[in-house]
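Hi W.,

Here's what went into the run:
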Amino acid sequence: MSAPTIATTPVSIERDLLGDFVHVVEEAAIASTRTMGQGDAKAADQAAVHAMRNAFEAIHMAGNIVIGEGERDKAPMLYIGEPVGAKAPDGVQFPRVDIAVDPLEGTNLCAQGTPNSICVLAASEPGGLLHAPDCYMQKIIAGPACRDALDIDAPVKYNLKAIAHCLDRQVKDLVIMVLDRPRHEELIAQIRGAGARIKLIPDGDLSAGIAAAVRGAGVHAVFGTGGAPEGVLTAAALRCLSGEMVARLEINTKELEERVERMGIRDPKRVYTARDLAPGDQIIFAACGVTDGALLHGVRFFGDGCRTHTLAMTYASRQVRFIDTVHMFREPGNRGVRLY
Ligand code: VTB
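Here's what came out:
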């Protein structure tokens, strides 16, 4: 008689692994927050990477990193193509899962103790997340009300008017988040010229993109050019939130052109939507706050333990959870577990 195998029905990833992935981002956040404000972005990132990598090892899955810390040989851990997950006993098959990670999105934010750094991952069935090259990506991101309203080739003013119309307000009522970079000088001038308001952010267009898809977060859209890997993670979150995104890789050198061709991307000028970037039928997205941000609290230590705040979402089963967890490092002293 052959040994039993574990069922790998498509539904099992979201149902069976959400809690495990929440644990992974929480561990990464706790480890990186220990370095907060120390001025060492590299150490902050390494702490997150180590913790994430360790936490993956306990999960019953055949995980494959599709977006990670870098190409093979360049990064020692969580590199693209690295297998992660617990070792399956003989005769047992764990479900295959593609995983995109940004162990610490906003390494400088954490190193400086400034808002909006998060530990993030997305997971899907094999093929459910685009293997994007580590290059720039032009993006416009907005909430579910802006369905099919964004056009990456249209003037900035047109997109702002469309977003305002979808949100039933005027352009002057919009807040647009833009990465504070010299390359955005012209974009910023155009947004200002159209009369919308702007929040410039030093880093973290991923958490900005999530905030844009959530009503009441005080941001209506994200415009500009950021990392392509962050773009795929944003797309995974937007699929869970039914948010809108249009994006295009910025392929501006011969070397990059050849690299994307090798990666199987036939049309480097293609306009991607969130569904194109994260086409999975099942998607898990998990982000844990490191420093306080628009959506998530940072990690708070209190001697006997700490408290984390995580956004955990699924696409097929349509869950959006904000998870507030108290982690006890030892038996509580006479202060006990705090409520706030
Ligand atoms: C953005 C930002 C990230 O990279 O994607 C950015 O959201 C793009 O690169 O937090 P540049 O810094 O070169 O503009 C980060 O800053 C870091 O991943």
